[in-house]
Amino acid sequence: MDTSKRFDKKRDKCPNIQCESNRAVLRNECSEGVSTAAHRVAKRGAMPCLFGKGGTCCHNCNMGPCQIIEGVEDMQGVCGATAATVAARTFCRMVAGGSSAHMDHGRGVVLAFLATARGETPYEIKDTIKLRETALRVGIDPAEKDPRDLAIEVGNKLLSEFGQQTGMPSFIKRAPKARQELWARRGVIPRGIDREVVEIMHRTHIGVDQEHKSLLSQAARCSLADGWAASMIATELSDIMFGTPVPIRSRVDIGVLKEDEVNITVHGHEPVLAEALAMAASDPEIVKAAKKVGAKGINLTGVCCTGTEVLMRRGIPVAGSFIQQEVVLATGAVEAMVVDVQCIMQGVSPVADKFHTELITTSDKAKIPGATHIQFDDHRAMDVAKEIITHAIKRYPDRGRHFIPKFRMDLVAGFSHETINYLLGGRFRASYRPLNDNIINGRIRGVAAIVGCDNYRVMDEVHAELAKELIANDVLVVATGCAATGAARAGLLVPEAMDMAGDGLKEVLEAVGCPPVLHMGSCVDNSRILIAAAEMVNTGGLGNDISDLPIAGSSPQWMSEKAVSIGQYCVTSGVYVVFGPNFPTSGSKIVTDYCFNGMADLYGGGWGVGETSNEIASKMIDHINQKRQDLGLDKKKERVLFDMAMRRELEATHLHDVGCKGPGQ
């Protein structure tokens, strides 16, 4: 049957969406009648409410909602609140919402870590070297202690930091000394992790804090409790429990689904669920059950950040990013989508209902109408995982008409801070020195981070285009979350992509064997970027603080409150961050100017905004160039040929810098 005309007709109705694989699925007859976020955005047509978009719609009490226009006396809130007050409150509540998601994630990881240390889960303490290092960082002497006993002690110490009321979280001390001193002067060092969210919610209640600078100071403090505490705790303990990531090859995009296997997608953000499913999928009984219904085995794939967690450590392929979650189901080839928490669209439920797919929720914090609920429990992890997979196996014989696109791309992931350190110096001389030296000599202009969500209101592949422009200008790129997935679909996460880099960056990449875009993990793993930045400072030669470094960050398609919290903790840490395509306080010029310029004066890092990849790249490169100029790196330097005496002096300096540490110390 000639279906070209029908597809042409459908193509006219199909939204102009990102990603060729998405378009291929949604234009196929199998997805007839499926409604995705792309369709809903297209149907809405008009721009979102400008008051809501700009942060000046206040609904914090029952006298409103109040829509406020800055500078217009009759357009204040009923209580008299100005646009600056309302925009600052709205921004603070976004930081609180995003931080709380990471904090609750971190607490869950600590509880699973403690249960594992007590032998109550099927997991194990895999990275004992990192366990000892972490113990020292939280003030615990690891000498002559059994790894399990030490893990319990470390876990209890970090768990206590969520509820403490005074003092400060242990990992704050990982920031450069100059940064810690700046935070102390500004009064933004967090006391306890949970306390800072509670204080934001109190301050933003009607009739409490009404001064935008005061409000945003608490946003800065709360964000640090996320990035330098909760998120960092989650990442560090996940590494200890499941293994610190090392470079690993895998594939990305919807084409990783398989015709002859039971396809299970795991979606959300919790590593403990995905790890259990990965362990259970290879169990002989499970494989036998899959073969009994005609499948060759279990094909576990990831969506969003849960997928990234198992990609980083196990090489399990990622089927899709946030914007692809409904489209993955629209293939009709998925037996079960298993979800935990965060970034899960309610729209996946009606899409699953159109096929044989079973949507399975696993957290009592995130239930969805129409889904099957199977509560996950760390203590029964394998039993629950096998139960979930059994549900999927039973669906396989019911798979009907389906379409799996051929789009899939190779990638290399697993670039933890420890991996980068090792790649640059080897086991015995692990150091960021080669990176710093190549920034100083100009081969590498600087380092840029592309992080955060993807968003159906942005119809271009901004992540990929931004990365291409940056690496072409000799800027090394690190990426996390859905931004990394988008860059991976474009083929930028393989060493072969170094051909797209500028000559200087390419020369360094060829020597090290790295891709020009380094995948550092899920959105909670942006804490790895903070650690890397601190290590660049500690290595020397590029200033005394993170704000001195020729680096910049971006979230070109930000979507969730978590992105706002991440951006704010980077700004508070001294990093210039560009959001796109809009900024959440744009309804108040006063607050936006403070975020863009006032915060830069306070913290050495401020916000920016750009609508296109070119505009965002230009702002980031201009900032990096300015930092190079401030460091005196813009001047051409004659090449120095080292004689033996100079080499010995350099070696002595290096040994002093690392404290003459041996391997594994």
Biggest β-sheet strands, sense, barrel = 6 strands, parallel
Q: What's the Cα radius of gyration?
A: 25 Å
What is CATH's topology name of the largest domain?
Rossmann fold
CATH architecture of the largest domain: 3-Layer(aba) Sandwich
Key terms for this structure?
16 strands; Substrate Binding Domain Of Dnak, Chain:A, Domain 2; 6-stranded parallel β-sheet; Rossmann fold; 665 residues; globular; 3 domains; disordered C terminus; alpha/beta; disordered N terminus
Structure description:
The protein is an alpha/beta fold. It has three domains: 76-242, Up-down Bundle (Substrate Binding Domain Of Dnak, Chain:A, Domain 2), CATH 1.20.1270; 254-398, Rossmann fold (3-Layer(aba) Sandwich), CATH 3.40.50.2030; 410-630, Rossmann fold, CATH 3.40.50.2030. The chain has 26 helices and 16 strands. The strands form four sheets. A six-stranded parallel beta sheet has the order 6-5-4-7-8-9. α15 links the parallel β7 and β8 (358-361). 55% of the residues are buried. Mean pLDDT is 91; it is low at 1-12 and 650-665.
